[in-house]
Write the structure tokens for this entry.
Amino acid sequence: MPKIYLSPSTQENNLYVTGGSEEYYMNLVADALEPYLRASGIRFTRNRPEMTAGQVIRESNAGNYNLHLALHSNAAPIYGTLRGVDVYHFPGSINGTRAAEILADNFRVIYPNPALVDTRATTALGEVDRVRAPAVLIEIAYHDNPDDANWIINNIGLIARTIALSLTEYFDLPFVEPLQPFSAQVDTESGRGLNLRDRPSVRSAVLGSIPDGARVTVYGLLPEWVAVEYRGLGGFVRREYLDFD
């Protein structure tokens, strides 16, 4: 399963023209994104609001991540004069550039003015050029512009869904709508354990075996596979071997 470092803004002093802060609203986006990640089989580590940018970068670099995803909103040099979504990536990163392009393409579908959605190469943002993993930093519109600020506030769920859709495209995973998590029981009929797999395919790596009769938490359903978690480990199992009570 792919694993990302999820990094909503820790900038509590960047205030929205409509009230609230960049840190507050980007954490709301991350909150809404988490169920999609679990449902689609994307593991994640998330930063914490009290962290500094340096601490975020060090924690990301201490792990083994397939993508570093930073969520921010923007402000113009001349207050309130700009609008749009910018997705930043490191110029020499093939994977970072590809992730940025996928995100921008999908944001063009939901942002009111698609022409104002762009990708930008940069070596001036720490969460792009100082992390080991391929990285993207999304500036999700301008919080000093009333129209953009209101667009963010009124579309938290849609923004999160668009990011999740982009990530599944990037990682070549099926996009799964999240469910309210519920419990199910493993029933292999043979008494053997059930393989927990990295992806929804019998050709994918086996992460572990779940004992017959054990209970798992279900996060998402596909026709033949189920995204589950067992003792803190997420993955996919065959749907036919779960009893949904």
